[in-house]
Amino acid sequence: MKKVLILGTIVVVGILGVCYSVETIYSGEINERSNLNIILEGLKKRDCWFEDYYIPVRTFYQIIKNNQWVEIDQRKREEIKVAFFDLLELLKQSGTEKVEGEDGSRCIFQLYYIAGELKDQRAIPFLIKELSYNGAQEALVKIGKPAIESVTEALYSDNSWVRRGAIQVLEIWLSGGVLIERYDVLGTRSIIASPSIPAVYIGNIYDVSTQTTQVQEAPSPKIGKIELNEKRNAQIKNLLIEKLNDESPDVREGTVQVLGNLGDTSVIPFIKSLAENDSYFWETDASFRHGKKGEKIIIYPVREEAQRVLKLLEEKKKEKELKNQETEELKTKELKEKGE
Q1: Does residue 270 carry a pLDDT above 60?
Q2: 320 belongs to a structural domain
Q3: Residue 301 counted as domain residue
Q4: 273 burial class (0-12, 13-18, 19+ CB within 10 angstroms)?
Q5: What Rg do the C-alpha atoms of the chain give, in angstroms?
Q6: What value does the mean pLDDT of the chain take?
Q7: Which of 3-7, 189-193, 287-291, 305-309 has the lowest mean pLDDT?
Q8: Is 300 inside a domain boundary?
């Protein structure tokens, strides 16, 4: 049943309408004059069925994906962008979670992709609300520095998945992301992902059991990393340390993973505290850990992750101390040889 979006009364994502057929749009090469007019007409409408809005978004997605955006004159590009960001504002107000079905999921992922490729600050409020989805995280990574303030503010969102999404975006900005070859509603593609947990995606709108994930070697420097001054780096690190005390165990665990990947040994005391004292646990069958079926065991997921990361950071600290010691011994030896 089609539902009409009436902001304030019915929260349904129905925004745009077009009277052209899908066959008209996808028959042959994308034609600037006809198809851009379709986009503009569709994007300017407001009281239409959501299903009708798929067409202009998909057309816009194909133009961006096929690198035809640069061929469009500046005035037309700005017209389309204004309509597009108006659309994102309406979606921010109504919410994308009401969109159902694979077609709806594909369209929302296309919106994320377009926003990331345009790298325009006007998309940031919409993407912040959608931070629990990997597509929105990747778009914010591409936007970069202009989104830093909004992403750090999202660490205090009421939604724990948004907070965890913000942590993953910050990690990629600080250390760079990895390319993941994966299949989702947009097909098989390479996406930018958090290096600490590259095979895990938070809040996906498709069945995790259907995904195929393969970690690829990341280019150097790593994708998505941005250069920040010392003050900003320290500020973000302190915010992450603060999130180790988040009320959500998922956020605490995700923060531990991120801090472990960043490799800053100065956080060892904070990680050690979680490794010893985090109180969150759940009970499960022993067969979950290759034990005897029917017996119950207690698992402390945050504590266990903190113990794993703590071991890695302590090993790194010892390696650094050993290297410093060797350097000092070499300097001392050189000074003695010069004295002789």
Answers
A1: yes
A2: yes
A3: yes
A4: middle
A5: 24
A6: 77
A7: 3-7
A8: yes
